[in-house]
């Protein structure tokens, strides 16, 4: 079961806690902090819970649970150490349609208590949907250590100025303005407690935003070869700022899912034979969206400047004086080589590495093949699958040893990665009988021998 993280306002709402021990104490703290009008029912109540309930003036019923206590409650928590009683409580709640949380019984829960990072008024709730509370607690500890202690002050500062900003700026500029505030010195000063100087800076910023109007921007982002964990922090930050995301076929779903929920997602394709949106049209779309004042993330597989036509995409922006940033990504050569355990250079095998494209016209001889043949060099060939046979033939014809090792890496760095090993003489025959899926990358050179001993995934 997957729980949706909804936040309820329990202030003043009748809530019943069944149980009087340590677990009930933890739940009571949570409910009282949320401002619930709490009643506790249990024959015995531990001293700490007793003291807490007294402090908050909560109602106490020293008795066994009775079914009629559930009626009219907003939320009931079954926290006794008797499973049968907890189940009885849960069943009764479900009969009456009252929300229930039952300790250690996810099947009897409509509501769960997430692990919380509390920076009032900012709350971060972490839940494993009742599958692994230990994991949720670890994640919470990580968030706890990376969330500024005073971030609540920043939330309050923003809250007090929201109406003003809405009055002063166009609707479309408001969100961008606040995004720039939370990443600025204003935020730092608020969190450091220097409210006067923060206020001064804030006013300057707001004046500048009013004068400037809204300005669009394009982020040309390298999304890496597939594994979403290979995205850079900067890529993630800019992606989450974008109003529109234009993405290629090679960008994984998991990465696209990291965009803002309200961002427009536009698929522009670009498989070798499927240019669902032609390049000039993509360039124009970037211009159009940015001219409308939007923040546009252009997500490209790998690195935008490696066989990615990234240069062409920003040329128009540069000419139109539209601001842009380029975020490097891990190119397929680096990603695939690392995940295949094939170092691209190695003191004993290769002193240099070259990246080339295999996307040649059928009979073309576009490469200077002779130059590419060097036993102490690694050759990485992008888009080489279709021309594989010809590439291998050309290399051998220009002096490469037919037994030079070759790796063909399929869907590198993803969960479906496959590696096919052969030589210049054999690789085409080896894969002829295999079901090979794009994208694929070829690594040619003596370093491929290391795959046997260095493979790790
Ligand atoms: C148009 S190029 C784009 C390269 C990209 N800009 C980069 O830096 O990786 C597409 C080619 O990159 C290679 N490629 C990209 N991702 C790959 C992956 N996960 N596994 C294997 N090859 C990949 C394939 O050769 C594919 O045909």
Q: What's a quick, concise take on this entry?
A:
With 457 residues, this protein is of the alpha/beta class. The chain contains 17 helices and 17 strands.
Explained architecture:
The longest helix has 18 residues, at 151-168. With 457 residues, this protein is an alpha/beta fold. The chain has helices at 22-33, 47-55, 83-96, 133-146, 151-168, 171-182, 185-191, 195-212, 233-239, 253-256, 279-291, 310-319, 332-340, 369-372, 388-397, 427-432, 451-454; strands spanning 14-18, 37-41, 59-61, 75-78, 99-102, 115-119, 122-126, 217-222, 244-248, 264-269, 295-300, 324-327, 352-357, 377-382, 405-410, 418-423, 440-444. It is built from 17 helices and 17 strands. α5 runs antiparallel to α6. It starts with 13 loop residues before the first strand and ends with a helix. S-adenosylmethionine is lined by residues 225-226, 250, 300-303, 306-308, 331-332, 336, 382-383, 409, 411-413, 439-441.
Percent of residues in beta strands: 15-25%
User: How many beta strands in the DSSP annotation?
Assistant: 17
CATH fourth-tier homologous superfamily of the largest domain? Tetrapyrrole methylase, C-terminal domain
| CATH class (first level) name of the largest domain | Alpha Beta
Q: Name the hetero compounds present.
A: S-adenosylmethionine
Radius of gyration (CA) equals: 30 Å
- Which structural class should the secondary elements be placed in? alpha/beta
Note the overall shape: globular
CATH architecture of the largest domain: 2-Layer Sandwich
Tell me the major beta sheet: 5 strands, parallel
Biggest sheet strand line-up? 3-2-1-4-5
What is the terminal-to-terminal distance?
31 Å
CATH topology of the largest domain: Methyltransferase, Cobalt-precorrin-4 Transmethylase, Domain 2
Q: Supply the number of helical segments.
A: 17
Overall residue-averaged pLDDT value: 92
Report helical residue fraction: 25-40%
The low-confidence runs, each spanning 5 or more residues with pLDDT under 50, are none
Number of domains: 4
């Amino acid at each position: 079961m997957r729980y949706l993280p909804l936040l309820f306002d329990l202030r003043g709402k009748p809530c019943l806690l069944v149980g009087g021990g340590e677990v009930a104490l933890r739940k009571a703290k949570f409910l009282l902090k949320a401002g619930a009008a709490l009643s506790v029912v249990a024959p015995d109540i531990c001293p700490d819970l007793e003291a807490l309930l007294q402090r908050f003036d909560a109602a106490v019923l020293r008795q066994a649970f009775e079914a009629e206590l559930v009626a009219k409650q907003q939320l009931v928590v079954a926290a006794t150490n008797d499973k049968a009683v907890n189940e009885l409580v849960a069943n009764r709640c479900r009969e009456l349609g009252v929300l229930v949380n039952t300790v250690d019984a996810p099947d009897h829960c409509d509501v769960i208590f997430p692990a919380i990072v509390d920076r009032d008024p900012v709350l971060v709730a972490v839940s494993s949907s009742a599958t692994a509370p230990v994991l949720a607690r670890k994640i919470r500890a990580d968030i706890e250590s990376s969330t500024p202690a005073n971030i609540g002050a920043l939330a309050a500062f923003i809250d007090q100025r929201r109406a003003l900003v809405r009055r002063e700026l166009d609707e479309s500029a408001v969100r961008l303005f606040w995004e720039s505030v939370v990443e600025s010195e204003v935020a730092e000063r608020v969190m450091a407690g220097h409210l006067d100087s923060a206020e001064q800076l804030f006013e300057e910023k707001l004046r500048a935003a009013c004068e400037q109007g809204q300005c669009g921007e394009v982020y040309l982002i390298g999304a890496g070869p597939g594994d979403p964990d290979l995205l850079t922090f900067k890529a993630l930050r800019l992606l989450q700022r974008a109003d529109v995301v234009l993405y290629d076929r090679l960008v994984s779903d998991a990465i696209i899912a990291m965009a803002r929920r309200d961002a427009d997602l536009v698929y522009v394709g670009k498989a070798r034979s499927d240019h669902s949106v032609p390049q000039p049209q993509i360039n124009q779309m970037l211009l159009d969206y940015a001219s409308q004042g939007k923040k546009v993330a252009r997500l490209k597989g790998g690195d935008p400047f490696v066989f990615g036509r990234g240069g062409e995409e920003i040329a128009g922006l540069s000419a139109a004086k539209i601001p842009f940033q380029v975020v490097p990504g891990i190119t397929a050569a680096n990603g695939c080589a690392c995940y295949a355990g094939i170092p691209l250079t190695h003191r004993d095998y290769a002193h240099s590495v070259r990246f080339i494209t295999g996307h040649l016209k059928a009979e073309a001889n576009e490469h200077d093949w002779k130059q590419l043949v060097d036993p102490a060099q690694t050759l990485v060939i992008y888009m080489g699958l279709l021309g594989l046979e010809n590439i291998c033939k050309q290399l051998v014809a220009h002096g490469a040893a037919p037994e030079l090792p070759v790796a063909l890496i399929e869907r590198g760095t993803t969960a479906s990665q496959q590696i096919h090993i052969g030589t210049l003489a054999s690789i085409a025959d080896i894969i002829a009988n295999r079901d090979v899926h794009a994208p694929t990358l070829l690594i040619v050179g003596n370093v491929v021998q290391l795959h046997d001993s260095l493979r790790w995934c």
